[in-house]
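Q: How do we represent a protein-ligand complex in a form that can be generated token by token?
A: Start from the inputs.
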Amino acid sequence: MTKEEHIRQLMSDPIYAIMGNAELSLGRSNIDAARQLIEAGVTIIQYREKHKTWREKYAEATAIAKLCHDHKVTFIMNDSVDLAIACGADGIHVGQDDAPATVVRRLAGPDVVIGVSTNTIDEMKQALADGADYVGFGPMFPTASKKDAHEVVSDEAKHFALHFSLPVVTIGGISLENIGSLYKEGFRSFAMISAIVGKEDMTAAVQELRNALKA
Ligand SMILES: Cc1ncc(COP(=O)(O)OP(=O)(O)O)c(N)n1
Ligand SMILES: Cc1ncsc1CCOP(=O)(O)O
Ligand SMILES: [Mg+2]
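Then emit the structure tokens for the protein with magnesium ion bound:
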């Protein structure tokens, strides 16, 4: 798939699944989690592994990238540009403490999707200026999945995000109970850890989230 096709997929499928470390994923391995997510019909998967060595991550991510490519699933690497390039990821997601999008672009080239985490209006403007393809925006709600998460986004930043020119992927504390409220506010893309890989039956979880968006 081309970069444009990946971005289209990101804009048309509201569900963006993030694989956490094993403790956020009921002890599953990342490869098992990826297999189950693909079976559940997820089309955007981010690899977010904070504990393993580079070589362990490289081995897993290379296998997951192949699985994703075989199933036309967009595979995004969190944090690490070198791992993303090495494993053949379709995209890279960087936070405010990671390499800036300008540097990621220089290293990874024009064909890779770049996502940047944002919490404020200034960060969204900077991500756009730096050549990001989408922004992660949050936390929308309090979350236990990220120890150093920012404060929940302000109403002003939400309003800006709803009119922003880049695709906005909301994140942070999104659940079956509150995803509908974000949809009603106008948001169309939802990245989740605990609401998907934190559930025993991920197929049912994804289906319930999709149903909640239709309700
Ligand atoms: C889609 C999406 N949005 C935001 C984040 C958070 O990234 P970051 O701020 O770098 O924090 P970590 O995930 O690395 O702890 C994300 N991963 N994905
Ligand atoms: C990675 C990240 N970035 C901002 S909040 C968050 C955690 C998202 O996890 P959950 O969906 O379980 O709240
Ligand atoms: Mg990061």
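The chain is about 40% helix and 15% strand. Residues 18, 46, 48, 78-79, 93, 95, 98, 115, 117, 136, 146, 169, 171, 191 surround LCLJCK34 (ligand 1) (CB under 6 Å).
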